[in-house]
Task: structure prediction
Amino acid sequence: MNFNFIEKLNKSQKIRFYLNRIVDLDKKIELIISTISLTKEDEKLYLFLKFWQEDTSIIDELKKNEINIIHHKKYLGDEEAGGLACEITLVNSDFIHQLLLCHFNYETGGEPYLNIRPYFVLNESKIIIDIYDDRGFDIYCR
Result:
């Protein structure tokens, strides 16, 4: 499993959702989780994280929430991001909420924060949700 699919996303098959008008971060996160929740109940859901920081705090948070890491690419301190791939379920919505809050906090100067870019991949339906920052997210169809 690798992150090559991210670079190969077809930009013409993208739908952009702007969240600028929603000020409350929790409401933005609820909307994203609701979008992810449109998947079939038994469908596998993968979380890919690109990150630009030491990975210990990210891995500790995943382990604390019993998230199974299926791929790990260490961040080496250069411009190339580190990466993690995990299989998750919507039962982990509290974890997803906290993860997105930390992602948005990085952009808005809040605490706690993580310098990450999360991608949710809905396996069977071939849909990728890219939460680029607190301003919005993109949905790609493969």
